[in-house]
Write a structure and sequence with these properties.
This is Flagellar hook-basal body protein. Belongs to the flagella basal body rod proteins family. It comes from Alkalicoccus luteus. It is found in: Bacterial flagellum basal body. InterPro entries: Flag_bb_rod_N (IPR001444), Flagellar_basal_body_rod_CS (IPR019776), Flagellar_FlgE/F/G (IPR020013), Flg_bb/hook_C_dom (IPR010930), FlgE/F/G-like (IPR037925), LlgE_F_G-like_D1 (IPR053967). This protein is α+β, with helices and mostly antiparallel strands. It folds into 2 domains: 105 residues, no CATH class; 137 residues, no CATH class. The chain has 2 helices and 19 strands. The strands form 8 sheets. Strands 8-7-14-17 form a 4-stranded antiparallel beta sheet, with no helix packed on it. Helix 1 packs antiparallel against helix 2. The two termini are 26 Å apart. The relative contact order is 0.20.
Length: 263
């Protein structure tokens, strides 16, 4: 009976964590370049029950599940819809056919080193450098910060950044992440890459075709209707485990109070 309590409790914890993940997805349904998280649910190893004193297959009762847990949450790198904004600092990154498991990202930098983002909603800071909305510098192919000076820039489909006089300022760094599953979210639209295979440039790389659309942004790839459906299913599953936990609790209470009572 106590094992049943643990199994139901594990189910509640797993569904609570999944609900938190789905809620975060819904909260970022309008965040440019956001990639929805998806959960991997796994069961703990089953236990084989045998009758006491039983020998051979006739003594076996069967397998007993020991609960479920959320093993991991990974971003879904499916291309999001593209929306026109008319803003010269909005740049949508559109992927071509990539190797399986790969993804394209803009390259930026943080205090902890190279970071990557799919949010092409750029800004120009007070010093004239091209940054993300959270203030992280966008890098060129040489790993340098891009000094745009003003918002009057042109970004070509290949990623060349031109000033108001059509002079080239820099080439945006677009990189191929060969193991997208090894990208870890760090907040503010940034990802850290923890894969063993190194990231490489997509500029001039025939195996990583892309095009940039200035005046457009890539929207979040969260499917709001599907996410709401999953949230309702998750809540129902949580409540089912909760009722089971309450039933075990009531049975234990009865066992403690009634069984063995002297009449």
């Amino acid at each position: 009976m106590l094992r049943g309590l643990y199994t139901a409790g594990a189910g509640m914890i797993a569904q609570q964590r999944r609900q938190e993940m789905l809620t975060n997805n819904m909260a970022n349904a309008e965040t440019p370049g956001y990639k929805a998280d998806q959960a991997s649910m796994r069961t703990f190893p089953n236990m084989l029950l045998e009758a006491r004193g039983g020998n051979g297959p006739h003594g076996q009762i069967g397998a007993l599940s020991t609960g479920v847990y959320m093993q991991e949450r990974t971003p879904n790198f499916r291309q999001g819809d593209v929306q026109e904004t008319g803003n010269s600092l909005d740049v949508a990154l559109l992927e071509g056919a990539l190797p399986e498991g790969a993804a394209l990202m803009f390259e930026t930098v943080s205090e902890d080193g190279a970071r990557y983002t799919r949010s092409g909603s750029f800004t120009v800071d007070a010093e004239g450098f091209l940054t993300t909305p959270s203030g992280h510098y966008i890098l060129d192919t040489d790993g340098n910060e891009i000094e745009a000076s003003s918002e009057q820039i042109t970004v070509t489909p290949e990623g060349h950044v031109l000033d108001a006089d059509e002079n080239e300022i820099a080439q945006l760094s677009i990189v191929v992440i060969p193991e997208a599953a090894q990208l870890v979210k760090e907040g503010e639209g940034l990802f850290a890459y923890e894969g063993e295979e190194a990231a490489v440039t997509a500029v001039g790389n025939e195996e990583a075709p892309y095009t940039l659309e200035q005046g457009f942004i890539e929207r979040s790839n969260v499917d709001s209707r599907q996410t709401m459906t999953e949230m309702m299913n998750t809540m129902r599953t949580f409540e089912a485990n909760q009722k089971m936990l309450q039933a075990y609790d009531q049975s234990l209470e009865r066992a403690v109070n009634d069984i063995g009572r002297v009449q």
